[in-house]
Amino acid sequence: MALGTTYSVITPEQLQRGTRRLMLDAAFATVVGTLNSGVVLVAYALFLGASSTMIGVLAAIPFLTQLLQLPAVVLVEKVRSRRAVSVSCLFVARLALPMMAVLGYLPDRDLALLLLVAGETVNCAFNAIGGCAWNAWIRDLVPDDRMGAFFARRTVYATIFGIAGTGAAAAALQYADPGGDGEPLVFFALYAVGFASSLASTWQLAGVPEPARAVRAGQRLRTLFAEPFRNPNFVRLIRFFASWQFAVNLAAPFFTVFIIQQLGFSAGFVLLLSVVSQLSNLAVIRAWGRLSDRFTNKSVLSLASPLFIACIAAMALAGQVGPPSWTIGYLVVLHVLMGLTSAGVGLASVAIGLKLAPRGSASAYVGTNALVTALAAGTAPLLGGAFADFFSTRELQFRIIWNAPGAAVDLVGISVGWWQFFFLISVVLGLYSLHRLSFVSEQGERPRGEMVQHILNVARRGVRNASTVAGLRASLAFPAGGVIDELQQPAQTGAPDVRQAPPEP
């Protein structure tokens, strides 16, 4: 089957085979993400001697390359074959992985770091373009009445393999000899396995059929994306999301650096903390969804967002806890709380963007929001890394001294170092973003106190029931499929539905 081949009618058998391949694609692609990005990438950069500025650049690349989704829409419109664009771009993106795998053996560490940044840029840029085409392709392939079930199954596959991949990477990094001869081999192995998984993912994706598209005349891209800025309430929502993403990404990308360099833990331990956060996120995502339906998305955001900001503030105090065993427990509890709260923020962020967008223009509105917030999210770690050297030579100390008779007693002493500065600045900016949220209007919104009282009541009932026997990756998702559909409006009447086969006579 040639990549450019399309089908005017997708049979039930083709759809079944295609969705099965998409599940395998999700599994293999998630393995690539867990082994070759995030904590593993930061640990690799630190092994190569990366500065704070370089860590900030690596953290910014995945966000800033999302801006390529806008010209990618034009590319998909010109090429017309979404499968050809998606598979080709994803294959090119993944060719960067074997090059990145061998960088640990280069004697010139400066060159190795530059090549690591170049490889990550190529990987993320072509992934963004390929993801844009994938979005439009799958939107037409999967019937509307199966879309929820499809993404639910895909999320399950991705989560299971993501946790397994993270656990494997954690074990490999935990038992590597830090700074020794074995560490380059570990990173080589992680990237090699990631590359092999990426080839399997691309192979599965290439076998998924593509429905033919009707040729329709429609709007210009500039007109489509200018519309959201004429909606005052949606502009207020964009301002909230932009300020929120800037605040959070000023601190979050550097948590790994802080835990490894200042607290003295291994990259494997950081990956285990990531698993803890993922599991707690999954445990409450449905509960947040029910609260969102009952009390509105803004109410969920007004509760979950300040709690997440509080977690960032708590991270700044992680070095003051006490012995290492206490610090480990503190970090585990903190990552559980971050997983719980980020689940609410992520779910409500996506939902409120869709809810406040007018019917028929949702993709343009959500796409505009995604581009603006991606720019804000990508700028934050760049600035954070660039100014890290300034904070690295400074320390802020808080002390409470009691002048007892005959001697002064130091009751409380807290020292705030360089990364903690960023975390506290992030907290201040996060509080400002919550101020921006207060200006957003959502139909049916209710006071946050009502939702808090409801949660407490449910918790009390749970405690009473249990007492007789002794129980937060994306607000930045660009809706390429919807944007392409909206560009083609108004559609020609009578266009065939090519997403599913007609009923048997």
Task: Give your account of this protein's structure.
By secondary structure, this protein is mainly α. The protein folds into 2 domains: 10-214, Up-down Bundle (Growth Hormone, Chain: A), CATH 1.20.1250; 227-463 and 473-489, Growth Hormone, Chain: A, CATH 1.20.1250.20. Helices cover 70% and strands 4% of the residues. It has a two-stranded antiparallel sheet with strand order 1-2. The chain is globular, with a radius of gyration of 24 Å.
Give a short synopsis of this structure.
This protein has helices at 12-36, 39-47, 52-64, 69-79, 82-94, 96-101, 109-141, 147-174, 182-206, 221-226, 232-251, 255-262, 267-295, 297-315, 324-356, 362-386, 388-392, 418-437, 448-466, 480-487, and strands at residues 396-404, 407-416. The chain is mostly helical and 505 residues long.
Topology:
Blueprint: H1 12-36, H2 39-47, H3 52-64, H4 69-79, H5 82-94, H6 96-101, H7 109-141, H8 147-174, H9 182-206, H10 221-226, H11 232-251, H12 255-262, H13 267-295, H14 297-315, H15 324-356, H16 362-386, H17 388-392, E1 396-404, E2 407-416, H18 418-437, H19 448-466, H20 480-487
Antiparallel strand pairs: 1-2
Helix pairs in contact: 1-8, 1-9, 3-7, 3-16, 4-7, 5-7, 5-9, 7-20, 8-13, 11-16, 11-18, 13-14, 13-15, 14-15, 14-18, 15-16, 16-20
